Amino acid sequence: MTVRKVWIVGTAALAGAVGFVLLLVVGVFVIAGSLMNGVGGAGKALAKGAVPAAYQTLVQKWGNLCPALNPALLAAQLYQESGFNPNAKSPAKAEGIAQFIPGTWATHGIDGDGDGDRDVWDPNDAIPSAASYDCTLAGYVKDVPGNATHNMLAAYNAGAYAVIKYKGVPPYKETQNYVRTITTLEDSFAAPVNRVDPSRQAAGAIYFAQKKLGTPYLWGGNGTADQGGRFDCSGLTKAAYESVGIVLPRVANDQYNAGPHPKREELLPGDLVFFSDDLTNSRAIRHVGIYVGGGYMIDAPRTGAVIRFDPIDTPDYFGATRVTEDGAKALPTTV
After folding, report:
1. How is 118-149 classified by DSSP, letter by letter?
2. Is the Cβ–Cβ distance between 260 and 188 less than 8 Å?
3. Least packed by Cβ within 10 Å: which of 47, 210, 246, 273?
4. pLDDT per residue over 172-227, tens digit each?
């Protein structure tokens, strides 16, 4: 929702760029369908900056503690639980970055950094404890048929006894949703090893954004009538994808987790592109636009400017997200 630093100067140059970009949008979407048959899934290494730099090493190390766990899955759990906030506290008295309740912490909290204490508020203890607890649960249900990771997550939500009783993920809607949410979010924290599928709704999102070109920027703008139909950066991207039935979070740094992350050379129109002054931390993202091809995006850049085309290849370019319906649905409403 904050200010972009670089924009296109000159009306003639802008007009030429617009025509060129629109041609690219058409061309790329013609070939996008053919990519669908040749793409691969996301890997399990952490995506660039998906975990705050202060926790990157911890998540990478402890996320490999047992075969049922991986760093991207552990990152997804931490994000779901607290949004990586080490001071988070829930109404149910869950505490810290991993949201342990006191009774569970007393039994399963470990001294992850070896400093002689077990502090639920210290990520150096809480993140290793979360991984250790996951793997303990995986051990309890190791003989249950089915997917070991799904069974581990189900045990985390419903208890190991329920998983053993039902010989897999139990028929509880809450538990089934929890397993689906975490495994879907896992893709948003994993670095892709190959191309990721183009979004089927991307063209519609671009069409929406194109109709808003020239609209004045409004900080906090959601495009409502009382705001004169004006947007800020994440308000525009949210509305664009909402127009095709995908509900994104309101702020840019949460929108980053709405799907897998294509590399710069793999960008397709409709991908969300993000910008930050801290290229190690997705939670520090401060701007987002909709990629349209040819190195350009449509964005709402800053107070005093209008929705327009801007280049993406600037020093503060952070990365991109290919929005998926499942990825957006999996995001917590508050973190």
Report:
1. --TT-HHHHHHHHHHHHHHHHHHTTTSSS-HH
2. yes
3. 210
4. 999 999 999 999 999 889 887 777 777 788 999 999 999 999 999 999 999 999 99
**Rg of the Cα trace of the chain?**
21
Q: What is the mean pLDDT of the chain?
A: 86
Regarding beta strands 317-321 and 308-311, do their DSSP bridges make them parallel or antiparallel, or are they unpaired?
unpaired
**Contact between 271 and 196 (Cβ < 8 Å):** no
Calpha distance 259→256 (Å, rounded): 7
Residue position matching structure tokens 């004006």: 230
Nearest residue to 288 (alpha-carbon basis) of 230, 248, 247 = 248
- Closest Cα partner for 287 from 307, 266, 273, 268? 273
List % helix, strand, coil for the chain (3-state, nearest 5): 45, 10, 45
CB 299 within 8 A of CB 290: yes
CA 38, CA 130: separation in Å to the nearest integer? 36
Contacts of 255 (CB under 8 A, 6+ apart): 234, 237, 238, 248, 249, 272, 274, 288, 321, 323
**Rounded to 10 degrees, what is the CA torsion of 76, 77, 80, 82?**
-120
**pTM over 0.85, yes/no:** no
Query: 222: which DSSP letter?
Result: B
Region 6-35: mean pLDDT is 38
Question: Tell me, what amino acid is at 204?
Answer: G
At residue 174, the pLDDT reads 94
Q: Say which residue the tokens 């499942």 belong to.
A: 326
Question: What is each CA distance from 211 to 47, 188, 290, in whole angstroms?
Answer: 33, 29, 13
